Amino acid sequence: MSGSEYVDAEIASQPDTWRRAAAIAAGPTAAALPNKGERVAVVGCGTSLYMAQAYAVLREQAGLGDTDAFAASEFPHRRAYDRVVALSRSGTTTEVLELLQRLRGLTPTVAVIADPDTPAPALADATIVLDFADEKSVVQTRFATTALTLFRAHVAAQSGTSFDVEKIAADAARCVTEPLPDGILDKTQFAFLGRGWTVGLANEAGLKMTEASLTWTQSYPAMEYRHGPISIASPGTVAWMLGEAPRGLAEQVQATGGQWIDGTADGRDPLAELIRVQRLAVALGGRKGLEVDTPRNLTRSVVLSEV
Known about the structure:
Blueprint: H1 5-12, H2 14-25, E1 40-44, H3 47-61, E2 67-71, E3 83-88, H4 94-103, E4 109-113, H5 120-123, E5 126-129, H6 142-159, H7 165-177, E6 189-194, H8 198-213, E7 216-221, E8 237-242, H9 249-255, E9 259-262, H10 270-287
Parallel strand pairs: 1-2, 1-3, 3-4, 4-5, 6-7, 6-8, 8-9
Helix pairs in contact: 2-6, 2-7, 3-6, 3-8, 7-10, 8-10
């Protein structure tokens, strides 16, 4: 077995898992998700936190209600919410379980998980199981993007806006197979940039590169990149835009000699473009001889022992 056999297959399966998530958003299971007008907090850890950030922006910008995203360990208990959405692939992450336990009887909660045979369903008021998107690789790819597709489709349904999952899945299929940008494997430093909901995607892109390939990465809101971080741009570095690029930023990066990648300039969906970053992370990890499915110092779930 190669060091990336599982994650390779999981990355390639995303067009299909996204279609299944969109179907769930149109069915009765989605009734567990927040109602229009509710004040909502979305929590997670690691990759799940970054998907929570994207969902929070999408929901609030759609006019569905105030929506915040927090690391589960940093939840502000003095604030009042109508519902808390907890995203956890494993359903066993210590911080998520502790938060669900503390909120029991106080705030309605829904857990979005991959494995129903875990403690999370017993602690949450409602559970949505995306078991078809579960993963064998420690590195998260399809579960996170599938959960975000569920949220995106639900936001669109509640706000009366369009969500063309077939177009998005087609973009994803293209990103699974098309060549990576020329010369990208020889770069040494990457900055991922986003705007609005895609700031969460940029954060996730940076994390994926770190986990899978031990690569030096950064992530920022795109407008903030000019306020200091651009100082590191030079030949050998990459600024990769996920979402609509701010006016003039491409030219500023190119003037440094750094490589500029506008991942959605051709109209592709930003979440689909994240697949190319996933593939890059795996390719770089393989080039370094790393076991990408089981990165060093990482486990499927962070379970803290009691002191």
